[in-house]
Amino acid sequence: MRTRILSLLAAAAFAAVGSDRASAAMIDTMQVASITPDILTDNTREVPGAPIVVRVDLSEQRMYVYRDERLVHTFPVSSGRGKYGTPTGRWNAYWLSPKHRSRKYNNAPMPWAVFFHEGYAIHGTTDLRNLGRPASHGCIRLHPDNARTFFKMVEASGKESTLVSIVR
């Protein structure tokens, strides 16, 4: 294959410079560009969507979801109770798990989990009666329908476009 390509290049060079003796000597000094492809870059990364900012107010036990700086959802939550406090701070979402279960707490269901700091996540709960007051082991719990809505928003916009802010 390589010999065939070099023959084709030589034929093209003769056609370009002529076939007399001086032109043939010129071909010997010509440099041919490499025919091996350069390293291909991955241009398939998706462009992040509209930025999402989540503000969880622990004193109100509410989560405010903003898209493009516009409030689009307000949800009641349950945060960490007693010695299982919820950390305050700001983080980007880093992992999505639609059917997650806790290894640490007896395989407890954590549907539509959006992880934001170490093992902490915003996720759905079956303990609906405690929404609006601290009741978790540190995670932010939502009604499963609200957790799914939030999960799908993060999935569409991208983890790198999602900022979680937890305040007291």
Describe, in plain words, how this protein is organized in 3D:
With 168 residues, the chain is α+β, with helices and mostly antiparallel strands. It has helices at residues 2-17, 21-29, 144-157, and strands spanning 52-57, 62-67, 70-76, 89-92, 95-101, 109-117, 120-124, 140-142, 162-167. Helix 1 (2-17) packs across helix 2 (21-29). The radius of gyration is 30 Å and the shape is globular. The protein starts with a helix and ends with a strand. The model is unreliable at 2-9 and 32-44 (pLDDT under 50).
Q: Which features characterize this protein?
A:
single chain; 168 residues; alpha+beta; four-stranded mixed β-sheet; 9 strands; 23% helix; disordered N terminus
